[in-house]
Amino acid sequence: ADGTQPRGTFAFTLTGDVRTTTRKPNFDFAIRELQSMGEKCEIVKGALPTGGRIVGAMLGVAGFKWDDSKSQIMPGAIVENLTSFGALFERAGQTKLSEVLRYGAAGSSGTVTEPYALQQKFPHPMIHVHYRRGCSLAEAFYLSISGPFQTLIVGDALCRPWAAEAEVITTGIDPNQTLKGGVNLDVAVKSPTLHFDAMELYLDGRLTVRKPLTESVSFDSTKISDGFHEMRVVVVSSDLIQNRYRKILPFNVDNSGQHVELKVDAEKIDVKKAITCNVNSNFGVRVGVQSNGRVLKEQKERTSELRIAASELGRGPVTIQAFAVDETGKKILSLPVTIEITGPIATKTEPLAKADAKKKK
pLDDT value at position 240? Predict the structure, then answer.
């Protein structure tokens, strides 16, 4: 749904139930804001909108069946319901937030214990305004709930249907380039609707630079270790939302000739098997293999063959790297290698199965 600018109706339902009257005083303001952005809004007298394409909805009813509405929930939509037990799944009697997710909503929320009819414990109608302005689903929820302590939010937290288009353009460092010495990095943004005035640079996940977009950045690669690094160039829009767009620049540094290499015996492997990793380095006193910063195995040699159980990595595509460390703790990384781990996810581990057998006996 990201960036699709969906078209449809924002529906606000109205009945005599306290579940809708709690939020009714704020309907008009949210509707005016949405209409000023060219959106279609409707106050529906009834429990559910009837027919049409719903890009956002605010309900207030204890029990309902979305199928009765004959309405289509558009991809990316937030559909909200104010009731006491929308997220208390072990208690029957009220419709759960999962009902609207089942019909295509990107997100919804519910309370996990009796909240009473207090607006601050539920999303304010302005949730749809924040979302329409380009916020992510998580941002829209947390901008609109002042007392979120009883609320469970479920959905695609990073969904941004109304995100504007923007392309980050960099010159000076190319993806996968090998750097020596210093370079100048220039950043620009191509966007038909947004304006940008600030940028941030993250080196290996750490914020290192924050400055105006119009200025060049001098980057001295001699200040960091040889080996693999990642730079994230983030630009910040100058509007109220301060939208962020990024470009990722993986690169290698070679100022001292130090390196570590990683080779694996397979790019695709069953979860029950082990991955053979050949690590070769001309640096340090020990080498190892890591994934997302978590050390999987290491050994006090510069060249080593390490076997790692695929089950330690989970399922799907997994990225691993070799590393080498010297006596002072200085660390260099290899280029990352991506492996696909296949196989079913076990529903019960062997120790638990044995424990259940003992209980039956």
Answer: 86
